[in-house]
Every structure is written in structure tokens, then in C-alpha cells.
Design brief:
The chain is of the alpha+beta class and about 230 residues long. The chain contains 10 helices and 8 strands. The protein folds into 2 domains: about 15-90, Arc Repressor Mutant, subunit A (Orthogonal Bundle), CATH 1.10.10; about 105-215, Nonspecific Lipid-transfer Protein, Chain A, CATH 3.30.1050. The protein has helices spanning about 15-25, 30-35, 40-45, 55-65, 85, 90-100, 115-120, 180-190, 195-200, 210-215, and strands spanning about 40, 70-75, 80, 135-140, 145-150, 160-165, 175, 205. A hairpin with a 4-residue loop joins strand 4 and strand 5. The termini are far apart.
């Protein structure tokens, strides 16, 4: 390991402690989050992490590269997760589930497009079984996603497949246009899409009824008490 800024260093044989020695520094796991769906250039990663400075992000990317978590292509300037880095996906999703059930969660704070898309893969409401499958588009300005909501069989729980940076959104039955925060309100909030459209909080292109049916399948859990 290099002598770069290492805020976390546990001298233990504990497997969890070893993992934290690799990805426990501030911003490290959030950098991984931003790369879980697609590779990105430096400025794109930083756009999803508005609280990080350029110098800290550079350091974290270098550290993650040294640990075999992130790879960098000098020709394109893109950063991507390695096979080892992609094994952190369930860790990120487990942390998201924990955060959703914690009373300190404040959805008014910045929500990156990638974090919203990842949250939707785990926040499908369990009663949303045996419903027609849908394909939805999400246009968040600098990032675009296609989601396929369905299951292998009609009786299976619904799953969400996310495609980042699709060549086109024509396959979608609708496209929601907005920011990470405004679309989070559309997906998880109590107001119908028609009301949000009237306020200008978001735009719905295509089938508004299908879009409403789609977002109705997602729900955040309430805070865990006790």
C-alpha cells in the first residue's frame, strides 16, 4: 500500500476490518456507487458527489486503483469498476436499505441519478406481483437510464434491470424527465405525477398512465423503531 492519505487502518485479522481498510475511507464507497451502473469520467463522478473536492476524489480514485477496485483508461479518461469492485454492489445496496430505515434519512438532500436508480432496484413494493411488465425511461440531463420492470415468471417478485446511457429511450413506454431529487419525489412521494407535472417539478413524455402505474410499484420503508 502506498503512503497516500489513509484515514482508515485497522490492525486486525477481522474480515470486516480488512474490508474497511480497503474501502472505508470517506467517499470511497460513494465513488464505487457512482460506477456501479456504468464507467464515468472524472467530472461525471464528481457531479454525482457534489460535496467532494477534486483533490480528495483524485486521491480516492488512486487508492481504489491501487486496491484493484477501480481501473482507469488513459485513452478515454474513463474510470470503471473491476470484477472485484463489482462485488461491492450488494454492500452498497445493503447500506441503502439500512439508510432507508434510519430516522435521520433526509430526502431533501442531494440525490445523484445513479443513487436513485440503484435504490429503485431494491425498493419494489412486495405486493407488486402479477402485474404487467413495463419499460420506463429516465432522463436526468447528464445521465439517462432505461429500466425494465418484470420477473422470470408472472408469480415471481418484480425485479428492476437498469441500463445506463442507452443509445435511445424509444423502447420505453414513458420517460420521466427531471433531477435526481425531483424524480425521487415522483417515485417515492405521495403526490400523483399529474400534480407534479402541473408544478413543473418534472416532465412526463409518453404514456402518463403507464408512468403512474410504474412509480406506484416503489415504496420506501418507514423508519425502523426500537
Amino acid at each position: 500500500m502506498s503512503g497516500r492519505d489513509r484515514a482508515v487502518r485497522y490492525d486486525e485479522g477481522c474480515l470486516a476490518a480488512n474490508a474497511l481498510n480497503v474501502v472505508g475511507d470517506r467517499w470511497a464507497l460513494l465513488v464505487v456507487r457512482e460506477l456501479l451502473l456504468t464507467s464515468k469520467r472524472f467530472r461525471q463522478i464528481r457531479a454525482g458527489l457534489p460535496g467532494v473536492t477534486a483533490s480528495v476524489l483524485s486521491t480516492r480514485l488512486a487508492q481504489l486503483g491501487e486496491q484493484g477496485i477501480v481501473t482507469h483508461d488513459p485513452a478515454t479518461g474513463g474510470y470503471a469498476l473491476t470484477a472485484l469492485g463489482r462485488t461491492l454492489r450488494p454492500v452498497i445496496l445493503a447500506l441503502a436499505r439500512f439508510g432507508a430505515g434510519h430516522p435521520d434519512h433526509d430526502p431533501r438532500r442531494f440525490i445523484s441519478p445513479t443513487s436513485l436508480m440503484l435504490s429503485m432496484t431494491i425498493m419494489v413494493d412486495p405486493p407488486a406481483r402479477r402485474r404487467p411488465r413495463l419499460v420506463g425511461g429516465f432522463d436526468l440531463g447528464t445521465e439517462r437510464f432505461l429500466q425494465r420492470l418484470g420477473g422470470s415468471r408472472a408469480s415471481d417478485p418484480l425485479t428492476v434491470e437498469v441500463v445506463a446511457d442507452p443509445a435511445e429511450l424509444d423502447a420505453a413506454e414513458f420517460v420521466l424527465v427531471g433531477t435526481g431529487n425531483s424524480l425521487a419525489v415522483a417515485v417515492y412521494g405521495p403526490l400523483p405525477l399529474a400534480d407534479l407535472m402541473e408544478t413543473g417539478a418534472l416532465v412526463v413524455r409518453g404514456d402518463v398512465v403507464a408512468a403512474q402505474s410504474y412509480v406506484d410499484r416503489f415504496r420506501l420503508p418507514g423508519p425502523v423503531s426500537g
